[in-house]
Amino acid sequence: AKGKSKKLALIAVCNKLLKQAFAIAKSGLIYDDTYRSTLVKN
Prior knowledge:
mainly alpha, flat, 0% strand
């Protein structure tokens, strides 16, 4: 099967989690797993 290598996919997931973690730390808000975005997705 074609696609991205496992290592590349793992790096992408790590980057996504790091971005979220730093955004939460930078905002000073406590993480809320029940939070729902007010942005509407089409």
